[in-house]
Amino acid sequence: MLVGSEVKSLRAGLVSIEEAYGRVEEGEVWLVAADIQEYKNANAWNHEPKRRRKLLLHRREILKFANQAYEKNFTLVPLKMYFKEGRAKVLLGICRGKKNYDKRESIKKGDMQRDIDRAMRRGR
């Protein structure tokens, strides 16, 4: 459920779903942490950029995969946002979060890459 200034921002491409995720609460699906920037021409009727947005799904869709994700402790991840027949759509995927040992490996790789970059800059 979007307000007018959010739709204008979406059409202008002022959206980021990098950190966004879906959450099932009381039989409804919410899009959390999606950043839709303010529309500059909306003035006083602008929206809050990172507010929670209710996703309109059919009941069978909620029962089919959203509850499955909730029960098995998976995460709903927005893969892309697009317009179809004048309506804003969100493509959701189900994924499993990283385990602690996976996170440690990612941090270690990032640290090594940072050290390599620093050494390369010093050598120039």
Automatic annotation (TrEMBL):
GO terms for molecular function: RNA binding. It comes from the Bacteria. One of its GO terms (cellular component) is cytosol. It is found in: Cytoplasm. Keywords: Cytoplasm, RNA-binding. Pfam families: SmpB. One of its GO terms (biological process) is trans-translation. SUPFAM superfamilies: Small protein B (SmpB). The keyword Heme does not apply. Belongs to the SmpB family. PANTHER family: SSRA-BINDING PROTEIN, TMRNA-BINDING COMPONENT OF TRANS-TRANSLATION TAGGING COMPLEX. Required for rescue of stalled ribosomes mediated by trans-translation. Binds to transfer-messenger RNA (tmRNA), required for stable association of tmRNA with ribosomes. tmRNA and SmpB together mimic tRNA shape, replacing the anticodon stem-loop with SmpB. tmRNA is encoded by the ssrA gene; the 2 termini fold to resemble tRNA(Ala) and it encodes a 'tag peptide', a short internal open reading frame. During trans-translation Ala-aminoacylated tmRNA acts like a tRNA, entering the A-site of stalled ribosomes, displacing the stalled mRNA. This is SsrA-binding protein. It comes from Lacipirellula limnantheis. The gene is smpB.
